[in-house]
Amino acid sequence: MARTPPPKQSGDPAEQPPPRRGRATAVARDAGLAAGAAFARAGFGDPSLVLHWAEIAGPQIARIARPLKLNEGPSGGVLTLLAEPGAALFLGHDARALAGRINAYLGRAAVARVKFVQGALASAPLPPRPPKPGPNPDSDDPVHKYQGPEGLKTALGSLARWRATQQKR
Asked: Which residue, among 110, 105, 161, has the nearest Cα to 132 in the 3D structure?
């Protein structure tokens, strides 16, 4: 059986895999390096643009478009957004304001132009529904004797109802 030669390594440390240690280590130790390399391949030297996209663009735009790639050049960067098929035309009218918000967030003129690629976005999972409140705690429960702030008393009552449902299982 012929051996395949190892892949050629470039001089860029971001493209090189982490060194092998011959033993198991925590995943988190190498996850940051792998994630940083993935962001760098897409042109995002600073991953905060992708990670905080909903805050930067706003919830309406974040729902229909996501950053795909950032190409920085001498005349400014070009941000490529993956947008829902019908939304690319709508977002094209708002591209200059969106570039302004991105540059304000990053604190530098990183994006000069916004380009749109049409495609289906994977929908974000819906947040889990809160559990239904359980029955009111018994009259001898210590939560009824609490005399502190109302917000904390409400939270303690909720905890007592949850505890009552767990004891019935």
From this structure: 161
The DSSP 8-state label assigned to residue 23 in this structure reads S
Q: How many CB atoms lie within 10 A of CB 80?
A: 17
- Report the alpha-carbon angle 53-97-85, nearest 5: 65
The full DSSP string for 117-153 is EE-PPPPPPPPPPPPPP-PPPPTTSGGGG--S-HHHH
List the CATH number of the domain containing 46: 3.30.300.20
Neighbours of 124 (CB within 10 A): 10
And the tokens for 72? 């920085």
CA distances (Å), origin 144, targets 54, 134, 164:
42, 16, 14
Residue 152 forms part of a structural domain? yes
Would 102 be classed as within a structural domain?
A: yes
Task: Report CA dihedral (114, 117, 118, 124) to the nearest 10 degrees.
Answer: -80
- pLDDT digit string, tens, across residues 72-122: 888 888 999 999 888 888 888 889 999 999 999 888 888 899 999 998 887
